[in-house]
């Protein structure tokens, strides 16, 4: 399958590299066709890796990943082009963290909205699914590196799109039982809000190699 990855930071590189590793073709997109980070990644990732503008990546991909910063995600996708995005599955990994006033950050959008919802409104034909934004990028693509049970979440309006994303998560190594469907795209508000807790938890632990897991409730007694 062909994937377009928007964004050249740590998240974009981790996801793009993992997609190539599991057998997909990837075009990494940025604002300019000669972006140094994208050029370097593509040159080292093999024959299945390419790079270009946001529009190039969006046109190339059958499925798209938004790995840009949440404060610029809508603008980046606008640069990618509404026609290029079309009705494709758009997996939004962004977080609206605002570091303009230093640490701790704030959220540029919260409570009554989310980046996931902003993208779905701006590109109504796209099938936006929020996922993978609640952990470090190394955990996103290699969950087995952490021992024990931990979870990844999906939010979106389209059931088939969420099913497709579950399949991609499975290729990354996520067990089916670890994927929790939070509901429609409005539930992305919760997933994005969780990142503030993640930031403080990272500070408390002094490391980013962790994730959150939901402890399932005890089994209900049989009524038989």
Verbal overview:
There is one protein chain. This protein has helices at residues 10-21, 36-45, 54-60, 73-80, 82-85, 115-122, 137-141, 159-172, 188-205; strands at residues 2-6, 25-30, 49-53, 63-66, 89-92, 97-98, 106-107, 127-131, 152-156, 179-183. With 224 residues, it is α/β, with parallel strands linked by helices. The protein has a single domain (2-205), classed as Rossmann fold, CATH 3.40.50.720. It has an 8-stranded mixed β-sheet with strand order 3-2-1-4-5-8-9-10, with helices on both faces. The protein has a two-stranded antiparallel ribbon with strand order 6-7. The N and C termini lie far apart (48 Å).
Mean pLDDT: 96
Tell me what portion of residues adopts beta-strand conformation: 15-25%
What characterizes the major β-sheet? 8 strands, mixed
Question: What is the CATH architecture descriptor?
Answer: 3-Layer(aba) Sandwich
Shape from CA axes? globular
Q: H/E order of the elements?
A: EHEHEHEHHEEEHEHEHEH
List the domain count as a whole number.
1
Number of helices: 9
- The class by helix and strand makeup works out as alpha/beta
Low-confidence segments, ≥5 residues, pLDDT <50?
Answer: none
- What CATH calls the topology is Rossmann fold
């Amino acid at each position: 399958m062909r994937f377009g990855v928007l964004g050249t930071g740590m998240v974009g590189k981790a996801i793009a590299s993992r997609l190539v590793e599991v057998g997909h073709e990837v075009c990494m997109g940025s604002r300019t066709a000669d972006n140094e980070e994208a050029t370097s990644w593509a040159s080292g990732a093999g024959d299945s890796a390419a790079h270009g503008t946001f529009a190039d990546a969006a046109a190339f991909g059958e499925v798209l990943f938004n790995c840009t910063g949440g404060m610029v995600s809508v603008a980046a996708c606008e640069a990618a082009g509404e026609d290029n995005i079309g009705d494709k599955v758009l997996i939004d990994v962004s977080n609206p963290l605002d570091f303009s006033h230093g640490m701790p950050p704030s959220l540029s959008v919260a409570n009554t909205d989310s980046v996931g919802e902003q993208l779905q409104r701006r590109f109504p034909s796209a099938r936006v699914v929020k996922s993978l934004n609640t952990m470090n990028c190394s955990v996103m693509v290699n969950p087995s590196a952490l021992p024990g049970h931990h979870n990844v979440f999906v939010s979106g309006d389209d059931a088939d799109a969420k099913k497709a994303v579950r399949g991609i998560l499975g290729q990354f190594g996520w067990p089916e039982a670890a994927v929790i469907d939070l509901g429609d795209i409005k539930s992305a508000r919760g997933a994005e809000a969780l990142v503030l807790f993640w930031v403080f938890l990272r500070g408390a632990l002094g490391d980013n190699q962790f994730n959150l897991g939901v402890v399932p409730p005890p089994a209900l007694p049989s009524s038989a």
